[in-house]
Amino acid sequence: MLTTARATVTMMSLLVSFLLLWGFTLGPVAEAAVFIDTRPSLSAKSESLLEPWANITLTCKAQLYTMDFELLKDGASQELVHLHLPTIKHQFLLTGDTRGLYRCRSGLGDDRWTQLSNLVEVTGPKSLPSPWLSAEPVPWITPGLNSTLVCHGGLQGVNFLLRRKGDDAFLEVAKAGENVEATFSVHKAGDYSCTYRTHAAGTPSDPSAPVAIKELAAPPPPALSVDRESAGILRPGDRATLLCVAPLSGVKFQLRLGEKELPVPQSSTNPDRTIFHLDALAPRDTGPYYTCRYRLWNQQGLWSGDSKPATLIVSNEQLPAPELSAEPTSRSPEPGTLVRLRCLGPLVGMRFVLVREDAGGRRVHSVLSPAGTEATFELRNVSVADSANYSCVYTDPKPPFLGSAPSASVELQVEGPPPRPRLRALWSGAVTPGRDAVLRCEGHIPDVTFELLRVGDMKPLERLHATHPSADLTLTYVGPQHAGNYSCRYRSWWPNRLESELSDPVQLLVAGH
Fold it and tell me: What is the structure's pLDDT at 46?
């Protein structure tokens, strides 16, 4: 008992040292903000690479010192180890029928565990499992930016071979590093795959799934969005913020209004994004003209493509208010129907803006520029998610950029639950133990949280927030315990609280059980 207490103190001291080493402090605010990936790594070592799967030892290497390790095989617990002193890794010697899919996890104390490690496959004596190939940081190359391909395997001491499809002369070889992987620099576009062999005369493994590397004249565009507080109708003098996100880190960003660069202040919380701060907006700043782009720090002239435009609407309310009407006129339209909102103004050539107001505040719903004096906004397949108060304004896109007062509001209250989602299995037949099972939940409303549930159990197994009206929910490392029927639903707590009914169930069968 004394030994266990001392070990626990030692483990906590090592954890504190680890955090301090990386610049973390343990004050109340900093402690809440610390997030560390604690997943261990799993690798295999053979007694002889001439007979690679004869005598296998699996090493589970933790990120933090621990006294508890667990080895899992084909989705089920294989061996549980509790040590007397904390350590950073533990070795498991495989005996008997060793073929299977292995993962491990390490203890965090108080019966808590890390997430599962990477997957290591052990096959029979006449075959080698395929490696896994990934592109880092991105699967494309441009002038001044080359990509790298990382071939991941599970066996220490092997040699990796990289090939390009259609090029018999291309072959690069690298020895596996400590993390049982090898990194290759890529300078040309093509479809790449990798294999490995345990010794010079050995037969290579089956190839990895291919990875396509594209050659682009310019980096692909970033994504630009308007901050939630800036998404309504703004007044002259207001401030606004725009978020620009690039597909890679360590780049220089630029905000543009039409063809003009806007040298506005920036701030950032992540190396792949920046926040543009616009102060003292004027009526001329309205419209879908804002775009952003980026370039590598070592490139002076090669910019990415422009993002899709983002819209800021500024109105000084000096023009007469338009009229807004709904068709059908019912305040409570039937779920699933089409509702048209018509905004009628006194002038031609105006930009019309539909505004939605609910518990989350006022924000722009959509923008139209009709040829006449009327804009028709369509709400298709309406549901409870469309319940809100709607109004419209119009702005003149020409100097002096005047804007109207808002119309009177039209209230819509759609009753009943939102449409039921559909759940689909992205596999056929029974799932091999140790593999992942992916189920796609297809809803009807964007920006919701999807949940996967086992039939009869109302506690979600998986949750995922998605901006699109569908999401892929994954049951990781399937074992016999996962066999059964599953359903999904989607929920939202903002701006309106809603919860869909459960989808029809999908059955999951586990091979051999």
Answer: 86
Is 356 in contact with 372 (CB distance < 8 Å)?
no
Question: What's the rounded Cα separation, in Å, for the pair 190 and 170?
Answer: 11
CA distances from 153 to 72, 192, 436 (A): 18, 16, 18
Q: How far apart are CA 427 and CA 430, in angstroms?
A: 8
Q: Which bin fits 109, alpha (ψ -120 to 50), beta or left (φ > 0)?
A: left
Distance CA 444, CA 464 (A): 15
Alpha carbons 144 and 215: distance in angstroms, whole number = 12
Q: How many CB atoms lie within 10 A of CB 282?
A: 12
Global confidence as pTM:
0.78
Q: Hey, what are 193's tokens?
A: 């795959």
Give me the residues of the chain with pLDDT under 70, please: 1-35, 154, 287-288
SS3 134: strand
Q: Is 240 helix (H, G, I), strand (E, B) or coil?
A: strand
Q: How many beta carbons lie within 10 A of that of residue 441, not counting itself?
A: 27
- Alpha carbon 282 to its chain's center: 36
What amino acid occupies position 439?
A: L
Percent of the chain exceeding pLDDT 90 equals: 65
Q: Is 359 helix (H, G, I), strand (E, B) or coil?
A: coil
Q: Check whether the bond before 495 is cis (ω within 30° of 0).
A: yes
Q: Are 233 and 392 in contact (CB under 8 A)?
A: no
Residue 288, pLDDT score: 63
Residues near 328 by beta carbon (within 8 Å), at least 6 away in sequence: 337, 339
CA distances from 384 to 22, 231, 415, 443 (A): 48, 22, 6, 14
